[in-house]
Here is the input.
Amino acid sequence: MIALLDRAKSLVTSRDAGADRVVPPSGFTVRLTLFTAAAMAFLAVFALALSLAAGRLANTWGEELARASTIRISAPEGQLPAQTAAVLRVLEQTPGVADARALSDEEQRILLEPWFGPDLPLESLAIPQLIEVMEDPTGYDAEGLRLRLQAEAPGAVLDEHGRWRRPLVAAAGRLRILGWLAIGLIGAATGAMVTLAANAALSANAQVIAVLRLVGATDGYIARAFVRRFTLRTLTGAAVGTGAGLAALLLMPVGGDTGGILTGLRFAGVQWLYPLLVPPMAAVVAFLATELAARRVLGGLA
Amino acid sequence: MIELDNVAYSYSGEALFSGISLQLAPGAFHFLTGPSGAGKTTFMKLCYGALQPTGGTIQLFGEDLRSMDRDAVAYARRRIGVVHQDCQFLDHLPVAENVALPLTVSGQASPDQADNLQELMSWVGLSAKFESLPPELSGGERQRAALARALILSPDVILADEPTGNVDWEMSQRLLRLLVELNRMGKTVMIATHDLALIRAAKSLVPARVLRIAGGTLQSAGADL
Here is the structure.
């Protein structure tokens, strides 16, 4: 491990610049490595944004899910105030309920405004009364509460937001995992492509390797000549791809987390710095892939 | 320095030679001759550890070749200057960098820091070819550049495989004189060649031992050479 770190350090400090020169600079592997690294970095930035956005969405929905639910009371005119008072009494006595309040007419009018317009005559319509329930961290027993409501206020229906939000939270959580899985696969694919390109370069330079061995080069020296080149190429390609990915994300429409995954597909705050890790990570993958490929090929040429 | 004891080598199951013993002592001058395909190049490769024998033992500077890992062989090879008939250069690097390649790979100096590079290039008559690329050199120039590369680390042993194979008689004489001069400096020299005229010419310059590899064995050549 120490030897590997020393090798990695020598790449950065240009100690192996001489080793780099012994390999001819041309070849299709240059373009292949640059293009692959750029494309993979571009995809990695999107996968990272997707994963982080899904994570934010899951957290937001999860927090709301854990806290809020609604009770809807539909009762004949005249019974509504009594049933509302009964429901609030029940809620006061229910363990796990932190707060409960009946929405005012004005609040209900605002809620219905998107469907019926601003001039809705609420007094002349049989609009159900809504009660907002906030849970404490321990939560309440939903089935028990339903049974008590049935007994005390037959027109009350408990509407747990979780009934429809829970699958969305689960989906967002899975999406986050898939995002990370995609990043892992992108890393593996980058490693595979670099390995392929390194193998091709090593095979194409068999004569160079023979000359280097003839003059006393160790396998470590020969490997460094290829490792340095592929690592720096991958770093360059990944930097370009990351820049392009960030630019593309900036062009995405902004809608905040409430707009869902499509309008929230970008980074938030310090997360904008995370993609800067993509090029060095790609370089590490290329370093390890080329090192292994070179060792294997040079071992086979013994 | 290099010692072969009862060495055998088989290629694809077929024995190329066997029972070969030889000691390359400091300051010795050997010619290795024999018909084409007799195994001269293979013998030379065994001498610098590029091949492992299929039988017997080879010692490079006191160490058994079989027990040496590839790094150890590489380090031993820095003490052996090798000149091939086909020279083998890195065609994308100038001649000076090719000649200095052993310094580069051994981390001893960068090409432009090599103190003796200029002197060596001048000694082999290539002062004007510093920046030329290997494909731009003539056959003789390539051989002399290969010799300079073999000498840059001041090796103890020089193994030259058909060094005059691609050059005219005048140039082969010039190369021979360079190798004889090196031997007088104390270097061990072994030249594989099928050019008997070259061997005869050398006998007037240096007390050389002539070995003949043929029929799978190594023998001292007769006085009729």
User: Anything to note?
Assistant: The two ends of chain A are 24 Å apart (CA to CA).
